[in-house]
User: What shape does this take?
Amino acid sequence: MLVAPVVTSARRWPSIGSQLNVAARNNQNNMKRLLVALVGFACAVSLVANAAEGEKHKATPEQKALRKELIEKYDANKDGKLDKEERAKMSKDDKEKAEKAGFGQKKEAKKS
Assistant: This one.
């Protein structure tokens, strides 16, 4: 009867190939973490930028009255808004009043 020899804790040294595999896995994990961190940062920045843009100016009673007056006077199709053609028909004085009250500044700000 043959008996197999007993191997006492023989330590195997890792091969260079397995060491390279471990290093490659670590690099992949680091890259994934970096990618997740960058995507998270980009989302945070976009949320902050949108929150800053979302702040709306509340119209004063004088502005509301002027807007109502201009709409009653120039709103030809009675949709409650002044479209391009209706704004073009406004008198010079009314255009100056509207600009002074702060109407129509959004499009000018976007152009510059």
In short: Residues 61-102 form one domain. The CA atoms of residues 74 and 89 lie 8 Å apart. The chain has five helices and no strands. The helical segments are 16-53, 61-74, 84-88, 92-101, 105-111.
